[in-house]
Specification:
heterodimer, A: alpha+beta, Arc Repressor Mutant, subunit A, 3 domains, three-stranded antiparallel sheet, 15 helices, elongated, B: Histone, subunit A, 3 strands
């Protein structure tokens, strides 16, 4: 057992998926040819004036409301000054002491159902930097760098948490569920890979039982949750090693190398944190009308945490069902539509199980497939009524995926209706007669052989038999029970 | 301000620090001038703090306007050739800059 406890806070940058940039009308793009979405404002030509994108403000407020933040009645922009080629103005327009969203709280839930309560310090609006590419591969070997300003000026919301997380796995659980919430809000694509969601972690450790804080390091720019978790773990281990050897952790920015698992220190310039913030004179304050904020509160969708609680508490789903089905807003909507028409638990089982498994083979998602939620509900009803067996229902599903027809039509077309019991009994009697060795094994107590009969019966009936009925009838025929 | 020669409010090392942050290379003479001028500016600000400012909210903007917002509607961007026209160096349809590390 470690005698140190990690203390972790995270900063998350989320690119808003608005149509245009934060302060100019250039369209947002990802993957377009370089420097095709720029203008005098986002290239920082002299004499231009930025104008705030109203939709970016709206989305920032939505995020704040979803995180339980106080929405500032009046917030202002600041200039954060530093020189870098991806920042043409030599300052980033950001927010400093009066962010649009103040304190809030987010509740994440661990696999075992326990809660992780994470204080939100703030969420503020800012603009993204341009994309700087170092030619010649590795940074140190590059001879020249090039700048693509398409991304420059993209609206960002930066969410900062309190140092409330106590393990790498909690940090990742929190981030995954925060990401899910942002996806439900529809404010961002939240792709870690494409960089529309980026997370930095502030990591320190302290002796267990202590309430002070150790010196923290900042783990920068991880582009996947897996690497982030490993990176935080590696950094905790590194700090523990330093403290055990009697050393001191120095405050610095560190980087995790996924290939080697090593933590490296990014050389930090001594003035790098002297940003000389001052109020942006080119932008007037944003003072959201309380009525507007109230309207936005009303627009909030049901969020994953509340949905999961309702699915488990009111719909009879397991925690795991609920987690899988709240993976995306599309999947939840699909499930809810089906569950409104038929038994929710059965719908959940079929959607998260067989439907997704079969669709994965053809590379599509339920809501993009020819199978509607109503199809699923109808299939669940057919099963419930005993019209089809479970194996036959899987075939019906395959038929629906292929043709988009209603399940009863597929049942009809493929002759998948469950056989009635007397027809099935005749099939079983013939099977038992044709396989005397297996029948003898069953009499000898080798119960496993029952699987042979079930398999044969399913084959002969094209899946129209109910496997449980087959088992019962075989036992009756062989053992006379 | 003419005739006003306050004691320096910032020292030389602060001047050098601020100059470095602004990427300015100053000669020792220039540093001295800057020290005087910056101290003078700070002296004016000091004069404000000597006033009774109770109940006066900090002024961040001189124009009494709020919520100047723009609808989220794209408009044309510059043609790339034009965007790159003033670039010191063009590489791969991008702005070439010195190697960063």
């Amino acid at each position: 057992m470690s005698d140190f406890e990690p203390v972790i806070g995270v900063e998350i940058h989320v690119q808003l998926s608005t149509h245009t940039k934060m302060f100019c009308g250039c369209a947002l793009s990802f993957g377009d040819p370089p420097n095709t979405h720029t203008c005098p404002v986002c290239l920082a030509h002299p004499g231009v004036l930025p104008v705030v994108n109203e939709e970016a403000v709206r989305r920032a407020i939505l995020i704040g409301l979803a995180l339980g933040c106080e929405i500032a009645p009046r917030s202002i922009f600041h200039r954060k000054n530093y020189f870098y080629p991806d920042l043409p103005k030599a300052y980033q327009v950001s927010q400093f002491d009066i962010p649009i969203c103040g304190r809030g709280e987010f509740v994440a839930v661990r696999d075992d159902g326990s809660e992780i309560r994470v204080g939100i310090t703030r969420a503020h609006l800012e603009e993204d930097a341009a994309k700087l590419t170092h030619l010649g591969g590795r940074r140190a070997g590059a001879e020249e760098s090039v700048v693509d300003f398409n991304r420059g000026g993209t609206p960002l919301v930066e969410i900062v948490t309190e140092p409330d997380l106590r393990s790498a796995s909690d940090a990742v659980t929190f981030l995954r569920q925060l990401r899910q919430t942002l996806l439900f809000l529809g404010v961002s694509d939240c792709s870690m890979e494409e960089g529309s969601m980026r997370a930095d972690a502030n990591v320190s450790i302290r002796p267990v039982g202590s309430h002070g804080f150790g010196t923290k390091t900042e783990l920068k720019n991880m582009n996947s949750f897996r690497f982030l978790e490993r990176g935080i773990e590696a950094e905790i281990t590194r700090q523990e090693g330093i403290l055990r050897d009697g050393g001191r952790v120095s405050q610095e920015t560190v980087h995790y190398e996924p290939e080697t698992g090593h933590i490296t220190s990014l050389r930090s310039k001594e003035e790098s944190h002297d940003y000389r913030y001052f109020p942006e004179p080119d932008l007037v304050p944003v003072a959201p009308d309380p009525g507007w904020v109230g309207e936005l509160r009303g627009e909030l969708p049901e969020l994953p945490l509340a949905l999961r609680r309702r699915m488990v508490g009111e719909m009879g789903l397991t925690a795991e069902d609920a987690e899988v089905l709240t993976e995306s807003p599309e999947l939840v909507a699909y499930f809810m539509d089906a569950a409104a028409l038929a038994d929710p638990k059965a719908c959940a089982n079929w959607i998260r199980g067989e439907l997704r498994a079969q669709l994965r083979e053809v590379g599509t998602e339920p809501w993009e497939s020819r199978v509607s939620p109503a199809h699923i509900a109808a299939l669940v009803d057919l099963l419930g009524a005993g019209t089809v067996s479970v194996p036959a229902a899987k075939e019906v599903l395959a038929g629906m995926i292929e043709t988009g027809e209603q399940p009863d039509a597929v049942v009809e077309a493929k002759g998948l209706a469950q056989m009635d019991e007397s027809d099935l009994a005749a099939v079983i009697d013939a099977l038992v007669e044709a396989n005397p060795d297996q029948a003898q094994q069953l009499r000898d107590g080798k119960d496993k052989v029952i699987g042979f009969f079930v398999g044969q019966a399913m084959k002969q009936t094209n899946g129209r038999a109910d496997p449980q009925a087959v088992q019962r009838l075989v036992r009756a025929a062989v053992l006379g029970d | 301000m003419l005739g006003y020669s306050p004691p320096p409010m910032i020292d030389e090392s602060t001047v050098r620090h601020v100059a470095r942050l602004a990427r300015l290379r100053l000669s020792p003479e220039e540093e001295q001038v800057m020290q005087q001028e910056l101290s003078g500016i700070l002296g004016h600000i000091d004069a404000i703090t000597s006033m009774d400012l109770d109940g006066v909210p900090p002024t961040t903007h001189v124009i009494a306007l709020e919520n100047v917002l723009r609808a989220d509607v794209p408009r044309d961007s510059l043609p790339r050739e034009e965007a790159l026209r003033e670039a010191p160096d063009v590489v791969d349809d991008s702005f070439g800059v010195p190697r960063m590390d």
